[in-house]
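TASK: fixed-backbone design
INPUT:
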């Protein structure tokens, strides 16, 4: 059985790339890093009104914070402040499309964000843009944040009345189409 292996130009180029990369790694390892040059950099002097050992915890440490150690871009940690939902306009983007009330279960509200937006379902206890759903009642959903309360109601077109509560499923007999 005569099988011959013929390497493609792509294989040769990948092998050449691997050899070049290996040579670069060996060269870098042989020469070493520049850590010793970095460590030989002289420190900058800081002038303080009092020596550091004389400072107490109540003194202003702004001088030390302005000159963070090691590199210029280092900053001291500042905790991110949670942005509370301050306005009702966050909820005004949502439109209550309807509610579903089931016996022995929490109600469900169907919300739509803006015209043509996605529909979202929420139940009491769920969170929406920082607001907590407190209650879902017939045709309205109550949201709360700390001491604020917002109620969204279903928007009915003019001249319509809310549908009566369902009495259950009504059976409709099936009709067969006429055969021709």
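OUTPUT:
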């Amino acid at each position: 059985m005569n099988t011959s292996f013929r390497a493609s130009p792509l294989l040769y180029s990948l092998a050449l790339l691997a050899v070049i990369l290996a040579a670069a790694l060996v060269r870098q390892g042989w020469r070493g890093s520049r850590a010793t040059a970095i460590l030989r950099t002289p420190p900058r002097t800081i002038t303080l009104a009092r020596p550091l050992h004389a400072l107490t915890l109540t003194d202003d440490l702004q001088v030390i914070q302005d000159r963070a150690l090691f590199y210029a871009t280092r900053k001291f940690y500042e905790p991110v402040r949670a942005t509370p939902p301050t306005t009702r306009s966050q909820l005004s983007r949502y439109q209550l499309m309807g509610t579903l009330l089931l016996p022995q279960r929490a109600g469900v509200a169907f919300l739509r964000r803006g015209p043509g937006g996605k529909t979202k379902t929420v139940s009491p206890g769920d969170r929406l843009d920082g607001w907590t759903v407190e209650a879902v009642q017939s045709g309205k959903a109550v949201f709360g944040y700390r001491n604020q309360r917002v109620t969204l109601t279903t928007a009915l077109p003019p001249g319509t009345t809310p549908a009566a509560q369902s009495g259950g499923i009504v059976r409709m007999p099936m009709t067969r189409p006429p055969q021709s």
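COMMENT: The radius of gyration is 35 Å.
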